[in-house]
């Protein structure tokens, strides 16, 4: 479908932005270059926004890793070219299982890049050295890359089983700028199904928020993400709607913060460092951008109850 092609292309945009910020030294990612070869200049506020996004999510990943003691699994929904598996591997923090899901067109490209680069393939944990590939899927010992449409739950369920999912271990779901591309009913069905299946889990969702102005109109002009044109916009109305979409779908609790709060919660020394990477002409523009994105978390079970954005 034409819309799906547009959605898949958002991965190129996100990956390019991340690569550019990495190239400038905002954060370290030795693997992103293997997935995206070229990038063009992005404005400083976009780079800082990506920095806050990556570090804000990383904070919850670290908390999950500590609380689950390496015995959990991570399921990245709409993973695109995310390099988290390799970064965790390098840091000695691999979970028991790591599953990435995206449209087959996107996972096919990711499979291609993994196959092509020894630096990526060598890090896939394989006890017997066996890695199984199809054109769109890849299965290694604790890494599974799977092509599927997140709107089709029964196919998703089968694919997760192929990826050796364990419904009973602590599970972290990541959705970084993804749910907004899925229509509201399908996104609710997905969130509900995950809540029913995974009783000990944490969901970390990054996406748009505060999408209506005081007259109730959807604001689009200063936002870059094409997803806000799609029907998920009602879920992105406020921090409360972001939380409620989880609690009405079977998650026990939820919390949400704007990216302004997330940015301010990052370690001061790091903020000082990255604020020196590039000068900002207008800080106001950055604040406006950060106000329109948020991190929402939702939990099931007591292990991940009430996690906060405080570092640590
Ligand atoms: N999460 C990655 C990141 O932040 O770098 C990629 C973000 S990109 C903006 C959105 C991703 O969600 C794309 O890779 C897209 O293909 C994927 N996506 C959106 N809707 C999907 C669906 N129905 N099924 C599978 N993947 C989907």
TrEMBL record:
It comes from the Eukaryota. InterPro entries: LCMT1, Ppm1/Ppm2/Tcmp, SAM-dependent_MTases_sf. GO terms for cellular component: cytosol. It catalyses: [phosphatase 2A protein]-C-terminal L-leucine + S-adenosyl-L-methionine = [phosphatase 2A protein]-C-terminal L-leucine methyl ester + S-adenosyl-L-homocysteine. Pfam families: LCM. GO terms for molecular function: protein C-terminal leucine carboxyl O-methyltransferase activity. Gene3D superfamilies: Vaccinia Virus protein VP39 (3.40.50.150). S-adenosyl-L-methionine binds at residues 53, 78, 149-150, 176. Its EC number is 2.1.1.233. GO terms for biological process: methylation; regulation of signal transduction. It is an enzyme of class 2 (transferase). Keywords: Methyltransferase, S-adenosyl-L-methionine, Transferase. Methylates the carboxyl group of the C-terminal leucine residue of protein phosphatase 2A catalytic subunits to form alpha-leucine ester residues. Belongs to the methyltransferase superfamily. LCMT family. This is Leucine carboxyl methyltransferase 1. It comes from Microctonus aethiopoides.
């Amino acid at each position: 479908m034409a819309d799906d092609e547009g959605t898949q292309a958002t991965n190129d945009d996100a990956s390019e932005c991340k690569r550019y910020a990495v190239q400038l030294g905002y954060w370290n990612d030795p693997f992103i270059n293997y997935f995206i070869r070229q990038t063009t200049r992005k404005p400083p506020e976009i780079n800082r926004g990506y920095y806050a996004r990556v570090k804000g999510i990383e904070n919850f990943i670290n908390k999950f890793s500590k609380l689950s003691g390496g015995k959990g699994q991570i399921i990245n929904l709409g993973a695109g070219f995310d390099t988290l598996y390799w970064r965790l591997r390098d840091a000695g923090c691999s979970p028991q299982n790591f599953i990435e899901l995206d449209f087959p067109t996107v996972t096919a490209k990711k499979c291609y890049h993994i196959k092509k680069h020894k630096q990526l393939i060598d890090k896939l944990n394989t006890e017997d050295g066996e890695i199984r590939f199809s054109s769109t899927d890849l299965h290694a010992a604790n890494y599974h890359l799977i092509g599927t449409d997140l709107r089709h739950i029964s196919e998703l369920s089968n694919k997760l089983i192929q990826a050796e999912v364990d419904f009973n271990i602590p599970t972290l779901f990541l959705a970084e700028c993804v749910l907004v591309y899925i229509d509201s009913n399908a996104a609710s069905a997905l969130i509900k199904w995950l809540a029913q299946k995974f009783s000990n889990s944490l969901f970390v969702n990054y996406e748009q928020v505060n999408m209506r102005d005081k007259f109730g109109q959807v604001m689009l002009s200063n936002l870059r993400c094409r997803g806000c044109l799609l029907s998920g916009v009602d879920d992105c109305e406020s921090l409360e709607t972001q939380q409620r979409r989880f609690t009405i779908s079977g998650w026990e609790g939820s919390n949400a913060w704007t990216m302004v709060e997330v940015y301010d919660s990052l370690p001061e020394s790091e903020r000082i460092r990255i604020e020196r990477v590039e000068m900002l002409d207008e800080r106001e523009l950055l604040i406006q951008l950060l106000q329109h994105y948020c991190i929402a978390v939702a939990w099931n079970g007591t292990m991940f109850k009430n996690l906060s954005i405080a570092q640590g």
